[in-house]
Amino acid sequence: MTGVICGTGACVPDRILDNNEIAEFVDTSDQWIQERTGVIRRRIAVKETTSSMAAEAGRQAIEEAGIKPEEIDMILAATATPDHIFPCAACEIQEKLGAVNAVCFDLNAACSGFLFAYQTAQAYIVSGMYRTILVVGSECLSRIVNWEDRGTCILFGDGSGAAVLRAAEGRNWVSAAHSDGKGGPALLCQGPNAEESGKTGNLPGQAQPEGDGGKRPGISMDGKAVFQFAVRKVPEVVREVLDANGLTAEDIDWFILHQANKRIVESVAKRLKTDISKFPMNLQEYGNTSSASIPILLNEMNRRGMLKKGQKLMMAGFGAGLSWGAAVLEWGI
User: What are phi and psi of 129, to 5 degrees?
Assistant: First the structure.
């Protein structure tokens, strides 16, 4: 028994923030950002929230799966930016969808979040505990970004993606995941109880979370260290999963990587000696949406008819923790 994806969905905010607009309040330019990251524009939540976007993405995935919300046994929400500390985002998604029979909890692995949540869902399905699981990655990173730091504010965007997994007869593919807490300082966001808090704030017209007094944590990053970590560890873990499943890179139809930086994706393709055409990217439109990036891209490819039944996909996530992992799956829709 294995979990097969039978529906996908995505939701992004209406507000588009392009590089030229960012250049109006930090010392940067469209050319500078594109050359270093590949990002052209990103979406910023104004009226949307982490849970509202997640619920819409989940609704689309449930609709495509052809099931009722009541058939969902579990909701796993991967997020580092929930609307509230508690109740968890997954419970808020449950309420919005009417998935009254689902057990719910959140998982925070930052940019590796959706991949880790997918692996968790597979473990529950393989064990026989649950048969139908909604996995969601959703983020409002704009609310924790330091908009005075050009090294980080140019990178991130908001959005949500979702997938429904249902138990089916099929191969249980071996996946892999790793963490290195010593590397944590390379990509850090201080919590509300930290001794120091970054300078954060909303863009004009962006809703401010209630009760925070305008004081929120800010993302700090050692860009060089994160880049070196990603281009080294992602090819390693992809090869680990390929070897564990008796596959080669040539057997994979699509490599769906976390959408952090165009140069990272290109470097991974080069190290795997695989044509870049197998590495779709949409980071130019959305920026780095952390746990939402893989499912947003997966949904776009699905809705555009790029994914064919029986194709083999390799998903790979990497980010804060430090954390990284990969999973292979056979497309079943």
Answer: -70, -40
